């Protein structure tokens, strides 16, 4: 058995290191390590509760709005604020825009460049794939960046800037739009739709969201326009390389529910394993047995601790290990759609389980569905009606949790306020769920499980390409993880 | 064209400056780099290479075997615990970012601190964070940082601080352009090491709420149209940056988005000593008045302009959409 350390691991957000035990050209065991500590949970203590809106977005420059929404949701509970309908729609638009940009960035800048990996240079498709998807120089990256920048004009208009906007408040948003601006929002969305339909999907969004089985997806991908699109290229490469056999998940999926709309969610909350179950967030606990943290029993985030301890021998990551009822769950677009009962996700999961293929397909699917929802939200805005309603009072005492779905999965902020100041703040980010180290029972985290048995080909050199596909299929964000 | 080599490192930060940089539009990031002849040797979020080939590159840069024109560092530098820097290691190298940054800054022709974290410590330095972070050449307002007050890159410049949380993409790209063209001289940096190309402006310049400011017609709560200085914590009259001239994400800025400028280009903005979105006052007068105006004059002019506020501004200032449109000028009827 040989050991291999991969790091720095590029094209993920943040500082990631992998330690692989390899035997018979397969990964036998993987250890996933976050190599950085940030300290936000400590910085927040002693501050005014509303300052969380300034500080927490800066946990992450790629899902800063998700952090904002989580903090604002907790503050809304503590201050009795309820956004007016426009405020809820605008928050969803801003949050949806970030998630959409994030899904796009992941596909084009982080995931697809793996097909330009020199390990594939003898494949018949290599030249074309490399020309299209090579990092920095590929033609797809340039096209996607332009579309992304133009899409983010929506946040420029509704929230001033991205990332690190302060527009999302417990009572709604700070920027109302007039009739002309509402039309501009619709135009921005229409322009992005044109990009997705022409370049990414080769089909109308409506056609993609109607697919309800793996077989249908396969037939759909054969149409000439789809085959010539970037999703078509991915589906073709995925089939040739057998990506549905890579990166098997553990089979338990969680979602907190995404995009509230008048008391319900666009994507519902729950726990999915064999069937859909109600999610009991009281069963969440963070284990620190393999983290560079002071030893403590698994604690619910309400009572969680963050006491870094750099020289702890049993530890190998700054990430804690969140568990639900003691068990590992996977979060992300696939999890969100399984929990929501999406027929395509259910069929993909039933036939092959969670894997590199199904994770990427459901991210692409979600881009289409999300954009359709955003068009409806922009359409439903009523100019000259309020976007913001102040809360009853500044939070003085109490505790609350804000739960949202970032592009990468479930994000929770647990906040406690005493005497008008933050007394306790704990964050569990999506990548903490997916990239956690082992727990006290020796149970590996979701990625550690998914890496088991990954093939390491002779051609691969130091960085096995299958391992790279698997890691990036989760779209990790290490900055969030180590908050 | 001769290439200009660039290495980008991410230390204790959120990656937001890179994410913002990707929003560059005219021209977009990759085109801009190519046209300037900048060869991106490695960027952790954008490059293909991982693992051993990156470690080899870093080693060649450290020994000087491969020349490095520009070192960009995003994120603050952790010195903890106990000065080891081990709160932030460069993955795969078993070595702290602190040690890498010191070594590579010693080789680079120019060193850029990208964002307020790398420049001054930023949000990472706030509150009870045990990671003990610092900026590259400043720790908050104090010159020094991890590279020391006397640090000069091989090209003879101190660390160039492109502050901001996050940076505006053009601040970075225009600074790079000026370096490539050999036009960046010490006189082009302000007293906090910031390129004057953006720091010689105030965020107040070009703010669409300036008419409200003139008459001290102030918003009382979020989403209202009035000036944000009197009640909602806005620092735009003191904050250095061209945010309202250059605009963000098409047509945005913080004050255009309806919330206060929190002066994120300044050292120690993360610890204002009061709650960010509220204005601290003494006897009803904001304590943070414009820096280059005598206080007494400001107070006198304010009370005068308040008395003269047109009804249109007074009403619109506390509304979330325009209630009163400007009057249409017509020539006197005969």
Automatic annotation (TrEMBL), chain A:
GO terms for cellular component: cell envelope. InterPro entries: Ni-dep_hyd_lsu, Ni-dep_hyd_lsu_Ni_BS, NiFe-Hase_large, NiFe/NiFeSe_hydrgnase_LSU. Signal peptide: none annotated. Ni(2+) binds at residues 60, 63, 477. Keywords: Iron, Magnesium, Metal-binding, Nickel, Oxidoreductase. It is found in: Cell envelope. Fe cation binds at residues 63, 480. SUPFAM superfamilies: HydB/Nqo4-like. Mg(2+) binds at residues 41, 427, 483. Its cofactor is Ni(2+); Fe cation. It comes from the Bacteria. One of its GO terms (molecular function) is nickel cation binding. Belongs to the [NiFe]/[NiFeSe] hydrogenase large subunit family. This is HupV protein. It comes from Aestuariirhabdus litorea.
TrEMBL record, chain B:
[4Fe-4S] cluster 1 binds at residues 14, 17, 117, 165. Pfam families: NiFe_hyd_SSU_C, Oxidored_q6. The keyword Hydrolase does not apply. GO terms for cellular component: [Ni-Fe] hydrogenase complex; cell envelope; ferredoxin hydrogenase complex; membrane. InterPro entries: Cytochrome-c3_hydrogenase_C, NADH_UbQ_OxRdtase-like_20kDa, NiFe-Hase_small_C_sf, NiFe_Hase_small_N_sf, NiFe_hydrogenase_ssu. [3Fe-4S] cluster binds at residues 243, 261, 264. It catalyses: H2 + A = AH2. Its EC number is 1.12.99.6. [4Fe-4S] cluster 2 binds at residues 204, 207, 227, 234. Gene3D superfamilies: Cytochrome-c3 hydrogenase, C-terminal domain, NADH:ubiquinone oxidoreductase-like, 20kDa subunit. Coiled coil: none annotated. Belongs to the [NiFe]/[NiFeSe] hydrogenase small subunit family. This is hydrogenase (acceptor). It comes from Aestuariirhabdus litorea. The lineage of its organism: Bacteria, Pseudomonadati, Pseudomonadota, Gammaproteobacteria, Oceanospirillales.
